[in-house]
Amino acid sequence: MSDRRDGPFATVEYFQDLYGWKPPSKFIVCPTCEGSGSHVNPDIDRNGLTRNDFDEDPFFEEDYFSGRFDVSCYECNGVRVVEEPIFGLMTESQIEEWLEYLEGIAQDRAERNMMLRGYQF
Predict the structure, then answer these.
(1) pLDDT by residue (tens digit) across 7-58?
(2) Distance CA 33, CA 121 (A)
């Protein structure tokens, strides 16, 4: 299962760089860090943690919940908000371009996840 913290991320700014136009957008609370600007480093808890992980090392539990393993949010870079397109203000062809862009991002993410699992293309 993909972790929300895994990139690449679909951003209005990157879309603009690729397609040469910026879709109408608004700022929303970052869905990855939920507005905190940081999250636990995925290398620490990507595979999930159990009560046993904390019972075996009480200092780990304290460090985990104190934020010791937090990193700046991978999606918003600590800004706490991200731009989201406003589809109601876009033409049908603009929406199609955005969906094409999302499909490319999803393909990149899938290939990256496969490579992390040892598959090569």
Answers:
(1) 678 889 999 999 999 999 999 999 999 999 999 998 888 778 889 989 999 8
(2) 32
